[in-house]
Structure prediction request, 575 residues.
Amino acid sequence: GNSPRYDYIIVGGGTSGLVVANRLSEDCNVTVAVIEAGDVELYNPNVTDTSRYGNALGTAIDWQYKSIPQKFAGGAPQGLSAGKALGGTSDINGMTYLRAETAQIDLWEQVGNDGWNWNSLMEYYKKSEHMQPPTAGQMLLGASYEPESHGTSGPLEVGWTKSMMGREVVGPLNETFTALGLPFNKEPNAGSMRGFNVFPKSVDRARNVREDSGRAYYWPISERPNLDLYLNTFAERMVWHPASNEPGAKPKASGVVVMTANGTCTTIYANREVILSAGSLRSPLILEQSGIGNPAILKKHGIDVVVDSPFVGENLQDQTTTDMSYTMSNSTNLTGLAGYAAYFNVEDVFGSDLSSFNASIARSIRNYAERTANASGTISVSATEKFFQMQYDLIFKNKIPISEIIIAPAAATKSLTVEYWGLLPFSRGSIHINSSNASAPATIDPNYFMLDYDIQQQLRTGRMARAVANTAPFSDLVVDEVTPGLSTVSANASDAEWAEWLKSTYRSNFHYIATAAMMSQELGGVVDSNLTVYGTGNVRVVDASVVPFQVCGHLTSTLYAIAEKAADMIKAKYA
Ligand code: FAD
Prediction:
């Protein structure tokens, strides 16, 4: 008939989806469609203006997902932001470009993913990147990098914003971190992140605009005749070819049912593959609406089971963020922008209490695994225990960073935000459909602070954050603590007092992952090492859903690399 038909359909024109669209459509013999629920935001200043981070949150280009009340964390639900635009969450994020630790990416291979390790991913970090080397003036303000760790001919502009904050901030800040035992790290993107850094961002320095995945991967190739973009189009579910009688044949998706901008429902057909890139809070839901998931959940909503895949939507992991704020002295010249991050390992954070903390977490692993498996109902104690043991080793043996503190002075208000989060929380939760109506809200439960390690880490880091503001010479620039303030959390507040305040004020760090995790099925995987959904013949997931456990960096750099690798794997299959 007249129904549109393509070789590949990509669901979600976001951070990862546009990488895949660009690379697959390089071959002019194949046709590609991108289905995106949002619109073009090329001239939305909340997207483009590099100084407006946060302004897009809560607007029409934020999906504004919401968790259920968090029973281990004070009871309140949490707002979960995600971008609804061509470019996805790369349109609304903080633009921070920081990758991961070597040891944690190397573990991907240990959980059933042949070929996924730091060295192989490094090739793709570089492939995606176009590093704009810092100018001499920017180097004076702390911008630094090592050329061998960066790409020079990829689509994504990475670098430092045009105007950077003055030396009167970065100098004292660096001296304060040195006084606290933390060295300057001149290349945090080479797999070893501990230290203080002035990080690069996804930014087009010459144009002085945010570099989102649209500007990097879509607009330069938007005229390709073999690439169609469906904007304001909501993908509801996949449809399937009739079951084949061939032995070993797996179900194959024939297309995607979408709701178009004018409210009509139609199907777009796929010859080869459907690639889900709708983000970790959406791709697992599209799988469930399409009959791939835990049969008990699908049956409850009257959805026929196409593939029994019990771990879809399980293993949800996020981090928790706390903001502290200070007033800064009037004499401080705060013009310009810069990103300052400090990465601390467990030794930095726990100091002389390290060995008792180590012993208490070692004793808790089994109990953590039992409680996590119990809360899930489908993931096993033994698999969870294996993950927790690996995470324990990363923290206490490899000593990779466990806490990140971001220092953000604001010119307009002469104020300072000190923001921090735990990089490797143990708590895990889930996301599942709550209706057979694809646009109905899901049940999202990250189980924030379910396991004691997470709050211990957060309150110790809170004390470190306060120490940063109170340690010379940076303390000379700081006047008062506004949040929490000493009347709320006193200078000698107990662990319990800190914990109570933290649970009343934390937010999601928006680094949701693992809801369709890439790992072996015994461990709870949903996709294999080619990112193909287990049990299907032609459905892949390429977005943050597949990341099996947290990375210490921020997610986009790693997602661009994953999507580049995914595109190569797809091309290789049909070559
Ligand atoms: P997305 O980029 O979210 O793409 C999913 C796309 O699918 C979206 O365009 C969406 O509209 C579309 N979609 C969803 N459902 C449907 C549907 N049913 N039909 C059609 N289309 C659909 N990371 C960093 O590296 N640095 C940072 O500074 C940083 N800061 C952050 C700040 C915030 C506020 C947030 C929310 C995140 C931040 N992150 C940051 C995290 C990072 O941006 C995200 O993890 C990443 O962009 C997610 O990419 P993705 O490809 O998984 O999904």
